[in-house]
Amino acid sequence: MNPSDDIQKLLDEERIKFYNYSNFKDVKLVGCGGFGNVYRAVLENNELIVALKSFKSNNMTIKEIVNELKLHCKVDIHSNIIRLYGVTKNEDNIILDSMRYMFVLEYADGGTLRSYFQNHFKRLNWNDKLDFALQISKAVKFLHAENIVHRDLDDVEQHQLVLLISDIKNGVREKDIQGTSPAYIKIYKDCWQYDPDLRPDIQQVVSSLENIKNPENLEPTIESTDNIPDTFPDGESMQP
Length: 240
Known about the structure:
single chain, alpha+beta, Phosphorylase Kinase, domain 1, Transferase(Phosphotransferase), domain 1, 2 domains, 6-stranded mixed β-sheet, two-stranded antiparallel sheet, 8 strands, transmembrane receptor protein tyrosine kinase activity, ATP binding, RTK
């Protein structure tokens, strides 16, 4: 059986909508990754802006694409996770090293979380930061409940300040920043415990963040941003 038949079978079983590639216009590359590229496109019939995710044929097999498609179907109900609209097939195959099948996904118009922080980090107050942390945690909690293993947090995206997650990656430990709520510091330091048995589970993290977000539980913090670093832990600038 042709490997592509596996994708078609899944489309039929899950009733996933198939879009003709010719229905998309103004297709522009907006991101590149190890597994493929992401394009911004407009769906011609209703002017809906979407993201088209392609796959590099040398890095992913049809089986892996089918598995990822199944995961999207499984988590599509969560508000903090990128919506899957359907699948398309690029018959022109202008991307020579990519497979023809592409996912049609909700477009995160705010870009990646990293790019958002680069442009807005010093303008965020603690409520904004807690919102980001809480939305990430709730999405991770949902993935845990579905027995889904996370992959890459580089693809975390935000849409009008509502965080949307496609993939998840291990965080990088950093030094305490002056002005950070002690309660928040305790959460991430507990998560960094060397012994996994001493780390809080995701439900405890969500509960702790919700408690901090309650104004009555917030401890005074220094609002000055003078001591906030200008770079990410990997050295990339937070500034535009």
